[in-house]
Fold this sequence. Notes:
Layout: H1 9-15, H2 24-35, E1 58-60, E2 66-70, H3 80-91, E3 101-104, H4 114-121, E4 125-129, E5 145-148, E6 153-157, H5 160-164, H6 167-182
Parallel strand pairs: 2-3, 2-4, 4-6
Antiparallel strand pairs: 1-3, 5-6
Amino acid sequence: xxxxxxxxxxxxxxxxxxxxxxxxxxxxxxxxxxxxxxxxxxxxxxxxxxxxxxxxxxxxxxxxxxxxxxxxxxxxxxxxxxxxxxxxxxxxxxxxxxxxxxxxxxxxxxxxxxxxxxxxxxxxxxxxxxxxxxxxxxxxxxxxxxxxxxxxxxxxxxxxxxxxxxxxxxxxxxxxxxxxxxxxx
Length: 185
């Protein structure tokens, strides 16, 4: 591991195709090794005293209560085209990728259980991007429709790839998505 230049779990996930497990001693040794890396590189450090690994690997933030759930087996989160569309879409509503949480259920580390998703993220608005509600043991929700729960509203829609090829799907998504995000509560 002497050639390891980062200990950032998101960066490592982008390059690794297998799940990696480590003991507390190994994490401690990794921290010692990364301290010896050239100081000209600015890298996030894994604290040697880290007690537990996050239950989910995700990007963004949970603070605004907006969660995007997707299932892209070939990418850490989005395909490059879908990521561009995602950034532009949320940007039109004055949000950035740092404002919302994005979880890819194709990542073997992430539980595919709606209760655990709700407990961990505590979302108020959930957007299923091409993820069938039944795969999360939710009732059937038509595309571009909502299910209002006690805690959160679930919006079921198409993946960005599906919307790229069908402008009717894209327009229907935009109208409903805009309404969901702009609606307070």
